[in-house]
Every structure is written in structure tokens, then in C-alpha cells.
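Q: C-alpha cells for this one, please.
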Amino acid sequence: MTKWVEFAGQTNLSGVIVNKGELINLSCHTGKGIILQLMGLPEMTEEAGLSKVPLGTIDDAVRLAADAVSLQISFESTDLNNAIKDVSALISDAHHANFPVLLMVNNGLKPVHDTASKIKISTQLGADLIKVSLPQQIADLGERRRLTSTIRYGPPVLLAGGSASLPNFEEKLTLAADLGFSGVCVGRNIFQAADPLRMVDLIENRFSSRSSL
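A: Here is the predicted structure, written as C-alpha cells:
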């Protein structure tokens, strides 16, 4: 983790997301934003990753001098009511302590809500930044306009990277920028790239008129 925090310090990346144990043991701080991940632990099922539980508190964020906190939710969770309850409570606690909240929206195998609806609900929950994947396909111009309108309505929306093995990541960057995404929130697509610095430059070029990276 120290290697990649140092790497971020050499780029225009705004910050890095780290878990509590990683932040405790981090041996450097380059002045980049530190976002503490407060949720995790996927269930080991075919729906792996849908159920996330709190793994830290806002007190941890204060104690570890984080700049913001990150939460996760899947609207396809089999226990959505409790997932929303946990996220909503943590967002309230974070805002009470003046921490911005990045809400990561995880995809289920059988989506219940479209991307625009996920962004709208995340906005209503109080997220300050929203990480979400592009829809698998945009059916028509009306759907594209609805998605663009929803993105512009709420807080900055960041593109989720997904697997580093996906061959069309550069195409996703272009589409996300066209739709109004403010930047990206990715790990593997940078850290597992053949040339990580080139990938950061590519992302920055796509979002050169945006404020979040």
C-alpha cells in the first residue's frame, strides 16, 4: 500500500482509499486525500460482494486523521433494508463530524434499479461522491438524457473501474465523460496496468474539464 500511496503522490490523483488496518500501518503520507473504507466483508456466495457490513466507525476516521470516508451498498442485496439503515446511520455520523462520504454502489447479478435510479437514491441518502458503474447498455436517446440529467442533478459521480482485464476501459472513460461523470474511482485499472502512469494520464485527459479524479 505504501508503494501505491507514493505513486499517487507523483500524479494528479486526488486521493487513495484504504482500509483501517492499512492506514494504521501506512508508512508514508504524500499529502493526497486519505479516504477510510468503513464497509466490506463480502459473503462467499454466488452473489459475493452484495452484503457489506460496517468494519469501522467515524471515531476511527477521526483517530486516524482521514480526510473522508467510503461506504458501500448494493441495491440488489437480499437484506437491503438493513444495508440502507447501516449506510444512512454512518452518513449521518460522518456529516456530524464533517467527513465527506464516498458511496460505492456495487452491482448485483440481477440489477433491480437502473444506473440513474441508483444515483438518485444515493443522492437522497446524502452521499457527497457516488461511485457507480456504467449501464451495460443505453437503450435509446431518452434513457441517455435521463441518465445525464440525473448525474447533473446530484453530487459528483465517479466511474467505477471494475476488472483490469476488461478490454474496453478506455471506451468507458470516453462515454462516462460524455455523460457527465466527474472522474473515476478505480484501483486495478491503474495498479495492474502495464504502464500505470500512462493510464493516469489517459484518465486525466478524458476528464480534463472535470474537477474530480
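A few notes: Residues 4 and 73 are 25 Å apart (CA to CA). The chain is about 40% helix and 15% strand.
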